[in-house]
Amino acid sequence: MKHKSSLRSLEAFHAVVTLGSVSAAADQLFVTQPAISHLLRSLETTTGLTLFGKNGRRLALTPDGRLFFDETTAAMSALARLDTVADAIRSAKQGHIRLVAIPVVADYLLPKILGRFLQTHPEIEVTLSIAEGHRALDNLENGNADLAVALNDTARSCHSHAQLASHAMVIGPMAHFGSSTDDISLATLRAEPFVALTPGSPFRYALDQHFTQLGLVFSHALEAQTQSAIVRLVSAGLGIGVVDAIVATAETHQVSACNFHPPLHWAYHLLSPANARLSTAAQVFSNFVATSWATAV
């Protein structure tokens, strides 16, 4: 074939065979009968096949035409499916979101958010990976994730779609801080054994900077890789620790928690690459998170 068959000529051919006449095909495709005849001749030219023979005054498929019609039917079905898929993508009934989050967010924030989101969008597939702050943003910038939930880094080229304010709290074994609801001075705690995050995480860095600015030095009894591990170690009586308020609030059945002063604040952001266009599914999820976090504040 010197030229590819046009979609319109294939539609005309399929309609003529399916409906049984040129006139019926013309009515279905909203064109004239001469236009249908022209499309059929064009299809025969481009395929190099004789698709129709005469049976009295009616067009009849040749053997080659019958074989070609079978393939055309399969192609029309595939095209119809593409229309269905496009509609599903456009209406967020189908899609795939690659999400990366820092550990504390993956452990404590995302389970409820994803649970509610997937209840209303069960056809959307979400892949969640967990990485520390700089690695999470690396995944985003390298194109390995569509969205990241992490602390924002102004040195990175990211766009923030939503943010949730949080702060640090000190935790101890149950009843460690008594019944007082007053904030605790960090300086009064420096003699106690301290369970800290291992170096390298943004949280550990921010906490160390906070302590340095206050001139405080804590004796690290243990170091743990996650805040949930800190909770378990503190609940076992191995010291005190500082964790995100989201963690402390969720773990009140294991540890006692208290605000401290001077305080340490930050915000979690839902981020995407600055110049990337979100898929429809990712945009719907972004809007869902923004609404959820706005309600939580």
Description:
The chain is α/β, with parallel strands linked by helices. It has 3 domains: 84 residues, Orthogonal Bundle (Arc Repressor Mutant, subunit A); 100 residues, D-Maltodextrin-Binding Protein, domain 2; 101 residues, D-Maltodextrin-Binding Protein, domain 2 (3-Layer(aba) Sandwich). The chain is built from 10 helices and 13 strands. Strands 3, 4, 5, 6, 8, 9, 10, 11 and 13 form a 9-stranded mixed sheet that branches. Strand 1 and strand 2 form a beta hairpin. Helix 1 crosses helix 2. The longest helix has 28 residues. It is rod-shaped and about 105 Å long. The chain starts with 6 loop residues before the first helix and ends with a helix. The mean pLDDT is 89.
Quick structural gist:
By secondary structure, the protein is an alpha/beta fold.
Q: What CATH first level of the largest domain would be assigned?
A: Alpha Beta
Rounded mean pLDDT score? 89
Question: So what's the overall shape?
Answer: rod-shaped
Radius of gyration: 32 Å
CATH topology of the largest domain: D-Maltodextrin-Binding Protein, domain 2
What is the terminal separation in angstroms?
A: 65 Å
What's the number of helices? 10
**What's the domain count?**
3
Beta-sheet strand percentage?
Answer: 15-25%
Measured as a percent range, the helix fraction is: 40-55%
Coarse structural class: alpha/beta
The largest sheet is:
9 strands, mixed
In N-to-C order, the SSE pattern is HHHEEHEHEHEEEEHEHEHEEEH
